[in-house]
């Protein structure tokens, strides 16, 4: 059902037929036209068009305005120049606009058409004799192409063949989606996935589920499927409002009868059908190929009444949309497509189409648009509804509307989202509200722990919420959509005040806390202090809230205008499990604060100087967040927090020491110590067996990094005083990421690391040397050395490397060869001191899918087909492999901070046109201090080596005309040679790798001139040994078997490319 690029346009005709009149006009064609008329298919009529030497413009217009072209290839078809020119125009339209081409071989063999043999070939040769060779060549190529299109051939019954052609044309026309679905962003992807599950090759009956949260677009996808697939079936039925049908108060059996009566009425197109038993549906439909859509199914009874595979004829399909995946599984439906949220860019487009009727916001609306899209959380329903509600309004109107949109749902959205909530059991409704208000984005274990020891059946409740798509689990994190959170707040606000278990209204909460008007039914309080000016909390504010377990005080607008007055004698409830109080204004917590039940403790941005005295019972505590508590001077004894998993101390600028009691936190998996400017001492972490991530930024007082536990996966140390890594890192057998950027005191990278490591970043550090042990890191994929201004040499690197970033390594002179990094991208931007040996190692690097960028002003000599400028034509051998080098230079009119995408498009033009793209992401082009060389390999695997008459065109384009392309060159490689550089590297490096410093300096790139000797760049001398090896291993063909034209063009288009 996938649409072609032309599927959305309007066509004048359904079909254009190309035929030889004397052969078929009064026979086959007249019958075909009659069948098309019966089927409502419009066909272009050429009657009245006068014959002439050239194909008339009216005929060309007929071809271009027809959705499908049918070529009737009869015995004398090729005797007509008119027919052959029609054929060329049809194939041109196929290439340009995706026109559908169908073939009928009427009394001829397809092989005679392809090869122009037999009677067909005799007629063709006579026609060519009266035209130029170029005409004959084009016609021959067109016939060869069309002869390979599968079509009707060798039918014994012409009437049956015509009926089939009419059906096929109808299928093709119906496969184009109705214009009702124009502008449905991402719809094609959903349809492809569903069509794959529907599997029309299977002749039996199949039921497929279409599941997802409310408002995600399930019904829209189902309607599009019904529109696009209806031509495949004898009957089609779309059953909507199924949820409403279940509310009419019937018993189960009567409800099933009622549903089946509705289905039969729709399928048979007969109103008022009445049935007496449940087997009638099978008796009436068992021999019919039917497409049935059951939309918005909510319970198993509906499926039992309407979706039994034994009731329908072979080839039938049933599609069920639902918000409850469990009922699909209970009914034995295993083929289920789960509709996901659109991407950020798709969401923006969906909203803009509703709000502005265009795909992007007009000037001045981008920021406002992004805010509304964020509110919608990429939910298509919300994007459509809010977009249409804001359409035509001014920026000032939008600004006035935004605050309300953040806290209130449009009635249309609320009515859809509330259905899932209202279908929940009462206990599950409470869990839903608690997650919405207090526990969104919490770890599932933390949710379970916080809700433990209640009567809520937490495990079952979470499963029920997930089945109805009211929550999702993303890597063990519980996530609820923002609009569902807003709905939860509205649900609470509509409850009777005396029955509310959760308080969320700021004004109501102020009254309760000031007047101590709480009660035992309240289990949670959450409010935004930004909504009030002043609050004087009573010393007994929480005294009556004996069951309060959740307390959340936050600052949604991050303002400091609110004045909070907390008396010293105030006490927190003893049953608190979650305490989240941002910017807590007191220096210490209340004396006697009971911590025994706490699971989550969040006092970020507080003015606390210390927490509590002595050792406290903290066995239930799992998460502790004290981030940006800038007055905190010390941590308490945490030895009893044996279940603590996350400790966030980021931004605790006054903290000097981490207590030794931390060694008892055996379940600690995350430890954050960033921007702890005064931190001097960290005890050994080696006993923290669960610690997986350590991150520390801007802790300049810290000179020594502690020993790390063996299970740690990520270590990030930015801008600290650390001078070296501990030797114990070699035992960290799960370590994958080591990021030690901007550590100016870090001089030598000599520690033996575990071989499992895949990412190392030393950027902007003071490192001077990397030892050879790095070659043993067989899983290393990313090595980042950007801005290591003291680094002078690189050792041999592992062949697993995929990216080396060595930009702005101003002192880098040597790179050990050979570089055997077949998939690596090597960036040596602004490494102006690279010596000749280093440059040879880089340029000869055996990158097959990667590429290299380094300073250089001329194409090296080995690229023996080269020219200054942007166009190059060279002879080409039967090889489809070559190496390309381009000299690039930034335009003086560059835009600062621009990231440039450079596209190389290779077109192979022969019997058909094929193309292949390569993309290069060049960062911060404005910082290029001089000209640079871009070098890469290309292998055109789609070229047919036996095809002689072909042309290869390479086109380079850069976005926004940021680059000049000064020179380009190509080196053609033989097919049997995997990479001559990988062979010659070792020999040339063994000869030149130990050259004297003086020789190396002479070979280095002279940045002032922007150029270098080609021979010196590549290390190509007159050495006979090297020449003989080159002749033997890399034969450059001189006979122009095919033409290769290289064009490097810098234009203003910005290609939509991935990095």
From TrEMBL:
<dbReference type="InterPro" id="IPR002182">
    <property type="entry name" value="NB-ARC"/>
</dbReference>
<feature type="compositionally biased region" description="Acidic residues">
    <location>
        <begin position="1012"/>
        <end position="1022"/>
    </location>
</feature>
<dbReference type="Pfam" id="PF07725">
    <property type="entry name" value="LRR_3"/>
</dbReference>
<dbReference type="InterPro" id="IPR003593">
    <property type="entry name" value="AAA+_ATPase"/>
</dbReference>
<dbReference type="InterPro" id="IPR011713">
    <property type="entry name" value="Leu-rich_rpt_3"/>
</dbReference>
<dbReference type="InterPro" id="IPR032675">
    <property type="entry name" value="LRR_dom_sf"/>
</dbReference>
<protein>
    <recommendedName>
        <fullName>ADP-ribosyl cyclase/cyclic ADP-ribose hydrolase</fullName>
        <ecNumber>3.2.2.6</ecNumber>
    </recommendedName>
</protein>
<keyword id="KW-0378">Hydrolase</keyword>
<dbReference type="Pfam" id="PF00931">
    <property type="entry name" value="NB-ARC"/>
</dbReference>
<dbReference type="InterPro" id="IPR000157">
    <property type="entry name" value="TIR_dom"/>
</dbReference>
<dbReference type="Pfam" id="PF01582">
    <property type="entry name" value="TIR"/>
</dbReference>
<dbReference type="InterPro" id="IPR044974">
    <property type="entry name" value="Disease_R_plants"/>
</dbReference>
<keyword id="KW-0611">Plant defense</keyword>
<dbReference type="InterPro" id="IPR027417">
    <property type="entry name" value="P-loop_NTPase"/>
</dbReference>
<dbReference type="GO" id="GO:0061809">
    <property type="term" value="F:NAD+ nucleosidase activity, cyclic ADP-ribose generating"/>
</dbReference>
<dbReference type="GO" id="GO:0043531">
    <property type="term" value="F:ADP binding"/>
</dbReference>
<dbReference type="InterPro" id="IPR058192">
    <property type="entry name" value="WHD_ROQ1-like"/>
</dbReference>
<feature type="compositionally biased region" description="Acidic residues">
    <location>
        <begin position="977"/>
        <end position="1003"/>
    </location>
</feature>
<dbReference type="GO" id="GO:0006952">
    <property type="term" value="P:defense response"/>
</dbReference>
<feature type="domain" description="TIR">
    <location>
        <begin position="11"/>
        <end position="173"/>
    </location>
</feature>
<feature type="region of interest" description="Disordered">
    <location>
        <begin position="977"/>
        <end position="1034"/>
    </location>
</feature>
<keyword id="KW-0520">NAD</keyword>
<dbReference type="Pfam" id="PF23282">
    <property type="entry name" value="WHD_ROQ1"/>
</dbReference>
<keyword id="KW-0433">Leucine-rich repeat</keyword>
<dbReference type="InterPro" id="IPR035897">
    <property type="entry name" value="Toll_tir_struct_dom_sf"/>
</dbReference>
<dbReference type="InterPro" id="IPR036390">
    <property type="entry name" value="WH_DNA-bd_sf"/>
</dbReference>
<keyword id="KW-0677">Repeat</keyword>
<dbReference type="GO" id="GO:0007165">
    <property type="term" value="P:signal transduction"/>
</dbReference>
<dbReference type="InterPro" id="IPR042197">
    <property type="entry name" value="Apaf_helical"/>
</dbReference>
